[in-house]
Amino acid sequence: GDATPPLPGDVHRYAWDGEVQLAGINPYRYAADDPALAALRDGEIWPGINHKPWHTVYPPGAQAAFVASQATFGGHVRSSTWLLLLAEAGAIGLLLVVLRRMRAPPERVALYAWHPLAVSEIAGNGHVDALAVLALAGLLAAWGARRHALAGLCVAAAALVKLGPLLLVPALARAGGRRFVVAAVAVAVAAYVPF
């Protein structure tokens, strides 16, 4: 038939966390099904949230993206998709910069840009990985320009969306020096302070 495939629960949680923040509530304070948040329940976002008894698991960088997408693209379940698609475009642009600096063929960016996972997991399922990829593409561009403080900021931004990029900090600390480490730690700590 012509039925629309169901959206994954993740995009509902992104929208919910954004709406909670727009209401002035710390998204880490309550589980989604807490009675304190009952006034925020609607017919579009609320029913699709997975694991309602759980507190949110998304780090502060992802939370900033959720509230930004809800505020910018409207309070509906697909708002984050637009932000994630913009992040994908930004990542592709930064990767083109990196390839040009390396004097590598720019068409190599197609390996990433045309990969089916970009369509299915970012545009279709709305995974926040696109934000981490954007930050990591920024890391590559900054590192190639020997802008180590900016590279530290980028690796922290990636780790504030998905925790895996934290592993890059010790791996790059020696070559990046004090500026890299201080920038990475300062940005990460600053992002957690409001919560």
Please describe the topology of this protein.
Layout lengths: L8 H14 L37 H14 L5 H23 L8 H4 L2 H9 L4 H16 L3 H12 L8 H25 L3
Helix pairs in contact: 1-2, 2-3, 3-5, 3-6, 6-7, 7-8
What can you tell me about this protein's structure?
- There is one protein chain.
- With 195 residues, the protein is mostly helical.
- It has eight helices and no strands.
- It has helices at 9-22, 60-73, 79-101, 110-113, 116-124, 129-144, 148-159, 168-192.
Main pleated-sheet profile: none
Write down the overall geometry: globular
List the uncertain runs. Answer: none
Number of helices: 8
Write down the Rg.
18 Å
Q: Taking all residues together, what is the mean pLDDT?
A: 91
Please give the number of β-strands: 0
Record keyword descriptors for this entry.
mainly alpha; 195 residues
Task: Give a short summary of the structure.
With 195 residues, the protein is mostly helical. The chain has helices at residues 9-22, 60-73, 79-101, 110-113, 116-124, 129-144, 148-159, 168-192.
